[in-house]
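Tokens as discussed.
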């Protein structure tokens, strides 16, 4: 894939690192008090929670290129060529509709229901047709779904005009095996420490 633009919301990165920092502090406290059993428990709990923070908040991203898009969701990675995309919408999240299935991106979620009050027609001027009177909050460039949608639609339209020779093929793979294995081991360590009491 050429000319890749990586998309991950800055708030997701900030939230993930705040979570990692708090968990590190939670692990340091029993280490300094000198209780080895409590330290082992807190390491297991912190590891378990860290894996879920990584999967749900930190990992989701989009890689938007000239030939297609790669959607990194918590448990899967979807490679989707622009030739397979029929429509791009932002109703609940950035969603790519194909002939057989729709693929949503966790990295570009739509805003809450109160955000539509703050959308001004001037912020989407030139982004949507002038004949459109209804502006969805999820299409606003100030939202994650709107910003990612704008980039994706630009690349999709340019692909449809030029039609390169080597388009991407649709591929879906499960990519969270290691993270889930670490979470399972940490969960078993938590269960052992609870039932040992």
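Sequence:
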């Amino acid at each position: 894939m050429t000319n890749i633009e990586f998309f991950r919301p800055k708030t997701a990165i900030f939230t993930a690192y705040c979570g990692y920092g708090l968990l590190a502090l939670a692990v340091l406290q029993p280490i300094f008090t000198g209780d080895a059993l409590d330290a082992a428990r807190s390491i297991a709990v912190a590891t378990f929670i860290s894996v879920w923070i990584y999967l749900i908040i930190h990992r989701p991203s989009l890689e938007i290129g000239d030939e297609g898009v790669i959607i990194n969701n918590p448990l899967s990675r979807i490679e989707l060529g622009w030739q397979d995309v029929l429509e791009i919408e932002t109703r609940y999240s950035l969603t790519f509709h194909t002939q057989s299935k729709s693929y949503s991106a966790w990295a570009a979620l739509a805003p809450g229901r109160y955000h539509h009050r703050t959308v001004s027609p001037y912020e989407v001027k030139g982004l949507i047709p002038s004949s459109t009177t209804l502006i969805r909050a999820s299409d606003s460039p100030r939202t994650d779904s709107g910003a990612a949608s704008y980039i994706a639609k630009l690349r999709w339209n340019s692909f449809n005009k030029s039609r390169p020779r080597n388009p991407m093929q649709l591929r879906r793979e499960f990519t969270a095996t290691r993270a889930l294995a670490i979470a399972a081991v940490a969960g078993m360590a938590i269960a052992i420490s609870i039932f040992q009491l």
